[in-house]
Amino acid sequence: MRSDWGQWATSSRCQTRTPRSWWARKTHLEAKPAQNISTCGQACSTASSLLQLAQLMISGYLKSSISTVEKRFGLSSQTSGLLAAFNEVGNTALIVFVSYFGSRVHRPRLIGYGAILVTLAGVLMTVPHFISEPYRYDHTSPDTPQDFEASLCLAATAAPASTPVPSNSSCSGYTEVQHLAVVGIMFTAQTLLGVGGVPIQPFGISYIDDFAHNSNSPLYLGILFAVTMMGPGMAYGLGSLMLRLYVDIDRMPEGGISLTSKDPRWVGAWWLGFLLSAGAVALAAIPYFFFPKEMPKEKDELRFRRKVLAVSDLSVSKGEDSSSEQSPGASPEKKAGLAQMAPDLTVIQFIRVFPRVLLRTLRHPIFLLVVLSQVCVSSMVAGMATFLPKFLERQFSVTASYANLLIGCLTIPLAIVGIVVGGILVKRLRLGPMHCGTLCLLGSLFCLLLSMPLFFMGCSTHQIAGVNHQPGAQPGLELFPGCMEPCSCPPDDFNPVCDSSARVEYLTPCQAGCTGRVVQEAPDKSQVFYTNCSCVAGGGPVPAGSCDSACSHLVLPFMILVSLGAALASVTHTPSFMLILRGVKKEDKTLAVGIQFMLLRVLAWMPSPVIHGSAIDTTCVYWAQSCGRRAVCRYYDHNLLRNRFIGLQFFFKTGSLACFALILAILRQQVKEEGAKETIPNPGLQQQLLASGAKKEPEESRV
Predict the structure, then answer these.
(1) Is the domain defined by 35-140+159-295+348-460+552-670 classed in CATH 3.40.50.1980?
(2) Mean pLDDT of the region 204-222
(3) pLDDT over 80 (residue 685)
């Protein structure tokens, strides 16, 4: 007996070894299989959660530093949104095929290979930093030290000698090629990041679902989704830490820098987070190379244990060996489960059959409407996750680090709570399709109501000297006459200063007519002031940096409402996912999940960042020019930015609410039709229905 227990304890795979004696066998079947299954389930769930957490962390890190990448490489919001969407290109092209052929490959090992590719893509994402020249926030030459007089108001005769203004010839050739190379590397890295993430989530979900009991599946999925949701939260937290560091921390210029994180020209160390995230993915991928190809089904193992215990009790009184009687009974059940798998098709055959299977799946009204509702929710989440940090920076004049900290500490944790609450409600209350639809409808409705006050939480753009941003006027640059006529100001320079008394912001000290510069040293930081400003009442001094927003105090109430709305939207995640899993045939479950992920990426995660970025670009009132092309936006119309950004969120929330309302209407119609069929006047049929009620009970949860 001790040898049998020793063999079981030292077994490398999650399998059950039955001892020889009856008492040892009974004790083993009563206690050890449950512990064994629980241990295997915990190991698999933990490994899958950690890997998906790390993978989502590296995927979401770009979103936490999107505004920084725009400033560093001169990108528009539309281009940065397209860059974020390219993460889904490779993922979309392969996810259906990977999901369909998942049962024929070694899933854990393929997950490990995908994680290694994600690690390499994360390292590739940092290459643009190392091949680019050091970041220059002023218009000095790369061969000369920083000249702080470049932005001052100097006489027109002295300006050419002291102000090195870049010529158009310096923008041609190598500079443009380098810019294209940098952008191309980032797009390639994002594509590889999506390709490597293809097997991680679908295989992780199906691998866990293989041993999960149907009643435990909602809780397992809820925990998995909740833990993986910590990945984006950690990405924003990591971004908050990294963006406090200067971008060229590995190659600081001589004499240091005079910027602070509040300066609009500040660029944080965006690349450092990719290296740390890539290392986390590599560590989380190691256990997957040691997992077995298959795991025991929790439902079958528990049923097998009950049957063996029942036969064992009878065989003791009869002197029979129960183990020989149980094995023939378990084989047909296992074979029946295997028979429900998808048929063995080649790749060519699958390509031919896939359109018909896709149409058959999409003809299911519940499946189609649930996917469309998830598309709306995912579009809202994709746009919010990509550009909410930038929106907070512009609307409330907060730093990129603080914006990421708010999202990572408020929005993501409340979204995790919403996912857990949704899974617990489905599990504890044993919600059927009708109640799941009702829960989704209520969550979407309250999420929509909470978004209405967001339209009014903000204020207009403060006055910017020389920038025409009044409603109905064409955007452009208009120089104030008189006060800056003696100055020779570089047209493309950007070093803003703020006249706090009049709440007027100037693009450069030169445009404010400032001729002097003073640095006030302090124990924690130094503050730069410009003096003798002819355009400022009293001549100054004026501090360097943009003017603070008059609505900065609204950033916390704004984020609280956004976070509560995210929590309510997250409550619908698990019940809507269960509507899909319980609404399709068992043999089509894996393919249905693959189709769901494909549609979410094609219709939501790919276009939504581009749509939000394009909408943000339409609110720009002053574009920076780089080598004759439009680069990053310097100033936005705050009212238009708020209305269009929140308006897109409101539109997608309304679409999700409409889809859940249609789902609930269809489910009610199905209940009425089933009720009409049960009121058959034939007594014989009624007795047959009552007699077969226990057999049909497990199918009542199916849509």
Answers:
(1) no
(2) 63
(3) no
